[in-house]
Amino acid sequence: MRYNSGIRIGASLASSAVGSAAVPSGFALIAHISVARDGAGDGGHQRADSCSRPQTRGSGSFIKSIVAAESNFDASAISPKGAIGLMQLMPATAQLFGADPAVPAQNVDAGTHYLRILLAKYHKYRDGLRRVIAAYNAGPAAVDHYRGVPPYPETRTYVARVLYYLRLFRNERA
User: Fold this and answer.
1) Is 74's pLDDT higher than 60?
2) Which of 42, 76, 131, 170 is the most buried (most CB within 10 A)?
3) For residues 129 and 120, what is the distance between their CA atoms, to the nearest angstrom?
């Protein structure tokens, strides 16, 4: 999956320069993901108000929760460990999905694809969603090794934060 670079400011990502290849089958973009870059008062940071979502009930809230916990919707966020963008993808992970992590649509698309893989892997467990969230943060190897959420304070805090946002965003919709 390859992408064209660039996003038209204020345009829906679905009709932006990334084209139809930016969204894998079964996915849609929330109506208007406006990515603004206006140097006024925000230090030139890009912010995305929404994100890519699977077309299943409630999953938009899940993706939004991950983005909130990872980057607080700041498309230009870079972690001390080198994770980039809305879904804080490591460059190697983004490369696996053929994405440029600095391009918001590609970042969300690759992160969403990775979450789909994790959901497929952990769906059979009673605590599957917690495992998916933990694996997104600490990696599947750690989740498999500990047979659940690893005992790392950062990961446990992350899981709790994502679940908090998930409840918050689901209640927003109601």
Assistant:
1) yes
2) 131
3) 11
